[in-house]
Design a protein that fits this description.
Strand content of chain A: 5-15%
Helix content of chain A: 25-40%
Shape of chain A: elongated
Largest sheet of chain A: 5 strands, mixed
Radius of gyration of chain B: 23 Å
Order of helices and strands of chain A: EEHEEEEEHHHHHHHHH
Number of strands of chain A: 7
Number of helices of chain B: 17
Oligomer: heterodimer
Strand content of chain B: 15-25%
Mean pLDDT of chain B: 95
Number of strands of chain B: 22
Distance between the termini of chain A: 23 Å
Number of helices of chain A: 10
Shape of chain B: globular
Structural class of chain B: alpha/beta
Structural class of chain A: alpha+beta
Mean pLDDT of chain A: 87
Largest sheet of chain B: 8 strands, mixed
Low-confidence stretches of chain A: 264-291
Strand order of the largest sheet of chain A: 2-1-5-3-4
Largest interface: A-B, 60 and 64 residues
Chain lengths: ~290, ~600
């Protein structure tokens, strides 16, 4: 029977970082997650893998396959040259828990800082009407399955290279879904500018490329939000008007994002790095990937 | 002596953060209770996310003549009159408000031409009734509920498994479990506990369910002394993927048929015409032409005098039909049948079924706008579950509540598509309120019996301390293949007897399980306790299936092929733990239908 050769990252709080090699028998249509399950059931029963639906609907099984952020449940082995090993590593932007599982709780903390949907107080729900065309863009954003691959690939988050926190593409998409909702009443522009750090995004579109839901993150979500923020804060007339009006009481003033911790060295304590501190503790596997 | 574990006390502890758990947590919080919400996965990944087709509610946006009364009747007829009638009534009456509430919280449903929530047709529903977002309705619901829950202020424990309930003075007083990430034990004293743990599909080999569906709530309730009802009724969804092998069982939404998908066998015969039950034949189109007229109207959100296509028969019936076609040699190359939607315009398919398009394109190299899919039955949903009070979600054990798939009664012998998303909203809300009310009536501080806590923690540690024992993965594989083979779509007494023997052997093997590795994110160790739960529910399913000597809804007996109303009409199966720790099985009578509900059913016939 034909087989695939996988090099899988292993490591955690009580064990050293390393790559382990597995020969996995393959069958038609097999995906990387199938191979990882085979390893669990036959070779390494304690291999830590996060997954749920196996149908690209829950966004749990993100990892870096040959260096590319992918959902392992829809990455087919037949897309690879099986004469070469396939390397599977955890998402690098987030602190390691064990093997292929990382601590993504920072994302949930960021989400909490976004002001939720705010319906109008003066229009009863029975009178709400909008056309399908009015919500197609919002529905595109709401397709997001929160796999965090866009956060993982975003160099601002991945390299911890900014002085203050950045919410990342996933939460710009969420904010865009709220801002573009036909009847939402909240104004998140100040929040996006100050707390969210939207200016850090320099539209390299890496997030769009890895999105398994094919959301046009940069073009459809981030750029329109940047324009809204720029119109409000970098237009001299708006600036003068705000001075005259006095104060800025809109949502988001004073909100602070949590800091994304760097990845702790495997075998060590979880290190919480301050803003601007480079993540130097990225694990150095004993055996480097050859792919 | 074991070190003192981490401990968190709440008025209401909700176990499970799918739709039912989230809705219950929101309701309990709104009622003023402190709430802890525990889930095995990350928040927002629960099985609700996989629900595709829609949420059933008689909003009457597409068919003005729809009403809760007709929804009630459809639900009861679909459930072969074994549903708890009060649950079916509350469900039909309250579902529209629960759906509108989601919109108020920010959910963005597809729209009608006049700008209201659009509704699509589904099997067994008289009128187009399912509010939906393309074919990712569950994702929309869970995201909306998740944001609402987090915003309303509660503690969420992600990747945390509850393995034991703690009881005292005749009630449930808390729960014990462990962090999946670290393996460390955690204790939750609580005045009320809500089970919202979903279903049992991982006991079967071919299933649309994720690893989470190991019957945890069913087994925890059983161990705490609660009653399980109707466990023989396991829904095999007619359309799961059959190829490639890695995705066998993966759900193909009923919305494909709702949008006009046609089932054919290898001879290109539209076989569902042959399988329509005679007493309901008049509800379906007379021929292909009438079915086609219905599809054209439905795709434009218009009503029509054409009757629905035969593919929209109830799930139990379509599953048996497909199974029979394959068994009699008329299946597709990979052991399923063909489901074809490609005769509709490509744009329409991609807009209404985007995730099905992606799923087949990316996982099976099939373009569903150009050719047919191959599909076959897959274990999907358990109608049976913990017996609950319709008004409050209270189980038969004080302090313990249940909502959503883990509860029983709402769907009777067969669930209609779309009725689970509405079920979890309606009864999630009611159960959260019920649990908060019971918590408020409990004076004093929470208390958990330290002896039970320490016993639970020792039990969690045991498989790590054993060496040279049984492999949990091997026991799981053996359980799945046995349940698939002996307790599947068609059952017969000799198979069920054999199944009980195998289950007894597996239980013995389970007691000798040993796992390697540590406690931190160790899936082999985690599987041990899920396996314990799967063994309990598998036995409950098998014993209930053996007891019911008739065929009804999703339960089909080869040795008793007829529905036996004289003996089994209106009788629920009941499973409970006996004093000697064995499983006790009996039946109980459904509450009698009040006159006004009876007359609604009368109109159905």
């Amino acid at each position: 029977m034909a087989s695939a050769h996988l090099k899988v990252f292993r490591g955690g709080p009580d064990e050293p970082s390393r790559f382990e090699d597995f020969d996995v028998p393959i069958e038609d249509g097999m995906v990387v997650l199938d191979a990882l399950h085979w390893i669990q059931g036959n070779a390494a029963p304690d291999l830590a893998v996060r997954w749920n639906c196996k149908a690209a609907k829950c966004g749990s099984c993100g990892a870096e396959v040959d260096g590319h952020p992918r959902l392992t449940c829809k990455t087919r082995l037949s897309d690879f040259d099986l004469d070469q090993p396939i390397t599977v590593e955890p998402m690098r932007a987030f602190p390691l828990i064990r093997d292929l599982v990382t601590d993504v709780s920072w994302n949930y903390a960021v989400n909490k800082t976004i002001e939720p949907f705010k319906p109008p107080e003066d229009v009863p729900q029975e009178q709400w009407r909008w056309q399908q065309e009015d919500i197609e863009r919002v529905q595109e954003f709401r397709k997001c399955i929160e796999c965090f691959l866009c956060q993982d690939v975003c160099h601002v988050l991945r390299n911890h290279e900014t002085k203050s926190p950045f919410m990342g593409p996933r939460y710009l998409v969420r904010a865009a879904g709220l801002e573009l909702h036909p009847i939402d009443q909240a104004d998140r522009r100040l929040y996006l500018k100050d707390a969210g750090g939207i200016g850090y995004c320099n539209i390299t579109k890496c997030c769009t490329e890895v999105c398994p839901e094919h959301i046009k993150i940069t073009d459809n979500a981030i750029i329109p939000l940047k324009e809204r923020v720029a119109d409000e804060y970098y237009d001299p007339l708006q600036w003068a008007w705000r001075k005259l009006r006095g104060g800025d009481e809109r949502t988001g003033a004073g909100t602070e994002l949590p800091v994304l911790p760097g990845r702790p060295a495997a075998g060590g304590e979880a290190a919480t790095l301050g803003p601007g501190v480079a993540a130097e503790s990225t694990p150095q596997p004993d055996e480097q990937s050859t792919a | 002596m074991i070190a003192e574990p981490e401990q968190h006390s709440y008025d209401v502890l909700v176990i499970g953060a799918g739709g039912a758990g989230l809705r219950a947590a929101i309701a309990a919080r709104d009622a003023g209770a402190t709430v802890g919400l525990v889930c095995k996965s990350l928040l927002g990944k629960a099985h609700t996310v996989m629900a595709e087709g829609g949420v059933a509610a008689a909003l009457a946006h597409v068919a003005e003549e729809d009403s809760w009364q007709i929804h009630f009747r459809d639900t009861m007829v679909g459930g072969k009159l074994l549903n708890n009638p009060r649950m079916a009534q509350l469900h039909a009456m309250e579902a529209p408000d629960r759906v509108r509430e989601l919109e108020y919280w920010g959910a963005v449903f597809d729209r009608t031409r006049d700008g209201r929530i659009l509704q699509r047709p589904f099997g067994g529903h008289t009128h187009p009734r399912l509010a939906h977002v393309g074919d990712r309705t569950g994702l929309e619901m869970i995201r909306t509920l998740q944001d609402r829950a987090v915003g309303s202020g509660m503690d969420v424990f992600m990747e945390c498994t509850i393995s034991h309930l703690i009881t005292g003075r005749g009630r449930v007083t808390g729960a014990v479990g462990y962090w999946r990430t670290s393996g460390a034990p955690i204790v939750f004293p609580a005045k009320a506990v809500v089970l919202a743990t979903g279903g049992i599909g991982r006991a079967y080999e071919v299933t649309s369910n994720s690893w989470e569906y190991s019957g945890d709530g069913h087994a925890l309730a059983y161990e705490a002394g609660a009653e399980l009802i109707d466990m023989e009724f396991v829904q095999f969804h007619p359309t799961g993927m059959v190829w490639p092998p890695g995705v066998r069982g993966l759900l193909v939404t009923e919305a494909v048929r709702g949008e006009g998908g046609i089932l054919r066998n290898k001879d290109a015969e539209r076989f569902m015409w042959k399988y329509l039950p005679e007493d309901r034949r008049a509800e379906y189109a007379a021929d292909d032409a009438e079915a086609r007229r219905w599809v054209e109207s439905a795709s434009q959100g218009r009503t029509t005098d054409a009757r629905r296509p035969p593919e929209l028969s109830t799930r139990d019936n379509v599953s048996r039909a497909i199974y029979t076609e394959v068994r009699e040699g008329r299946g597709s190359p990979h052991g399923g049948v063909f489901l074809d939607i490609s005769y509709l315009p490509t744009d329409h398919i991609r807009r209404k079924l985007p995730s099905m398009y992606d799923q087949f394109k990316e996982l099976a190299d099939v373009d569903i706008t150009k050719g047919p899919m191959e599909v076959g039955p897959t274990t999907h949903y358990v109608m049976g579950g913990v017996r609950v009070d319709a008004e409050t979600g209270a189980t038969t054990v004080p302090g313990l509540y249940a909502a959503g798939e883990v509860s029983g009664g709402m769907h009777g012998a067969n669930r209609l598509g779309g009725n689970s998303l509405s079920d979890l909203l309606v009864f999630g809300a009611r159960t959260g309120e019920g649990a908060a009310a019971t918590a408020a009536a409990q004076p004093g501080a929470t208390y958990v019996d330290p002896v039970q806590v320490q016993a639970a923690i020792r039990e969690l540690q045991a498989p790590l301390d054993r060496t040279g024992g049984e492999d949990p993965y091997a026991i799981h594989r053996d359980l799945q293949s046995m349940m698939q083979r002996l307790v599947g779509i068609f059952r017969v007494e000799s198979d069920l007897d054999e199944a009980l023997g195998v289950l007894a052997d597996l239980r013995v093997r389970w007691q000798g399980i040993a796992v390697s590795g540590g406690r931190a994110f160790n899936p082999g160790w985690n599987l041990v306790f899920e396996l314990r739960n799967m063994l309990t529910v598998s036995e409950a399913i098998t014993r209930s299936a053996r007891q019911r000597t008739e065929s009804r809804g999703a339960h089909s007996r080869l040795d008793y092929p007829e529905t036996d109303d004289a003996k089994w009409g209106g009788r629920n199966s009941v499973v409970r733990q006996a004093a000697n720790q064995g499983m006790e099985i009996r039946t109980s009578a459904l509450p009698k239908l009040p006159g006004e509900l009876q007359s609604l059913l009368g109109a159905a016939h």
